[in-house]
Amino acid sequence: SAEKRELVETLKSELTPEVIAEANLSQGRMLFQAVCAACHVLYGEGGKVGPDLTGSGRSSLEYLLENVVDPSAVVSADYLMSVVTLKDGRVISGVVAAQNQRTLTLRMLTEETTVEKTEIENQVVSPVSMMPEGLLPALQPEQVRDLIAYLMHPRQVSLP
C-alpha cells in the first residue's frame, strides 16, 4: 500500500549508513530475541514458525524494510498459515510442518500439533503472513536502528 511504501521510504532516509554505524548491535540482538526470535532463527537461535533469516538478503536495507513493514507482500509457500477446523469444533492454525496420507502436523509458536486427517472438517490456507504488521512503528527510533543494524550485521554479536 501507499502507506507502507511511505514508511519504507521514511525509514530508508532515516537509517543512513552513518546512523546504522552508530547502532548498538548487542541491544539489537536483545530486541531480536524479544520481538523476532519466537518465530525466526538467526545464527542458529530462535523459532521455526517463520523463515531462517541467517541466509536471507538481510544485508540490503530496502529488502529488509520491505519484508518487515509488509510481511504479507511475499510469503513463501512453506510459511503460509493454515487454519484447520476439526470435526469436534476446535480450530487450530499454524504452518504445515509435515503431512502424510494419514496425518497433518501444524507448527505453532510454542508447539507442534498432529491431527488425523479424518478429523479435519475444513482446511484453509491464508495468504496473510503470521508475522504481525506494525512492529517497527511500535519501537523507539534508536531501537529501530539497533534492530535493523543487528539484522543487517554479517555475524553474531554478544549480548550486553
The counted number of beta strands is: 7
Report the mean per-residue pLDDT as an integer: 94
Radius of gyration: 18 Å
- SS summary, helix count: 5
Biggest pleated sheet? 5 strands, antiparallel
Topology summary:
Blueprint: H1 2-14, H2 17-21, H3 25-35, E1 41-42, E2 45-46, H4 61-69, E3 81-86, E4 91-99, E5 103-107, E6 112-116, E7 120-126, H5 141-152
Antiparallel strand pairs: 1-2, 3-4, 3-7, 4-5, 5-6
Helix pairs in contact: 1-4, 3-5
Describe it.
- The chain is of the alpha+beta class and 160 residues long.
- 31% of the residues lie in helices and 22% in strands.
- The protein has helices at 2-14, 17-21, 25-35, 61-69, 141-152, and strands at residues 41-42, 45-46, 81-86, 91-99, 103-107, 112-116, 120-126.
- The strands form 2 sheets. It has a 5-stranded antiparallel β-sheet, with no helix packed on it.
- The radius of gyration is 18 Å and the shape is elongated.
- The N and C termini lie far apart (37 Å).
- The model has no long low-confidence stretch (mean pLDDT 94).
